[in-house]
Amino acid sequence: MEPRFDLNANELGAKIGQRFANTSVAILQSSLPKSLVELVELRASQINGCGYCVDAHAKELAAAGEPAVRVNLVAAWRESTVFTEAEQAALALAEEGTRMADAAHGVSDETWALVRKHFDDDQIAALVYLVAMINAANRLLVITRTKGGSYQAGAFDAVAN
């Protein structure tokens, strides 16, 4: 399957994309650890089948020195021993916030309590927006059939600074 459409090559698409990027910059400027942001983005992208985003976030984690075992176990984080309790809470929020149509409850009270235990209000705001933004990005790229494999780590650093 070939890519369908380049949103950034379209004037309106690029304009909207810049505003989208500004929200992501604000999330990156929060006190959430960059590795946690990438882990959450990787997990949601795996669930949504976004090849471009799985490629990007796995490569960003590797480039930041994240051990391969942690990158490789994101998809099976519940059955691993390499994630902190705070990371597990964030990954649970990412999964439940991504799979809302799969469960009547959306994000469970149990998961929300774990998030409240490990993160302050500013970090929670950043996490909620992070889950929403990565899901939106996944949908944009899956709809347009943007493929994974060509991402270069650091490609978005200029936007984030």
Model description:
By secondary structure, the chain is mainly alpha-helical. It has one domain (32-149): AhpD-like. Helix content is 64%, strand content 0%. The longest helix has 23 residues, at 121-143. The mean pLDDT is 94.
How would you summarize what this structure contains?
This is Carboxymuconolactone decarboxylase-like domain-containing protein. The chain is mainly alpha-helical and 161 residues long. It has helices at 11-28, 34-48, 51-63, 68-73, 85-98, 109-118, 121-143, 157-160.
CATH architectural designation: Up-down Bundle
Q: Compute the gyration radius: what is it?
A: 15 Å
**Which residues sit in consecutive blocks of at least 5 with pLDDT less than 50?**
none
- Would you tell me the overall average pLDDT? 94
CATH class reads Mainly Alpha
How many individual domains?
1
- Structural class, by secondary structure, is mainly alpha
Beta content comes to under 5%
- The total strand number stands at 0
Percent range for helical residues? 55-70%
The biggest sheet amounts to: none
> Shape from CA axes?
globular
Say which CATH homologous superfamily is assigned.
AhpD-like
CATH topology: AhpD-like
* Ends distance: 34 Å
Domain Carboxymuconolactone decarboxylase-like: 20-96
Protein name: Carboxymuconolactone decarboxylase-like domain-containing protein
Organism: Nocardia aurantia
Pfam families: CMD
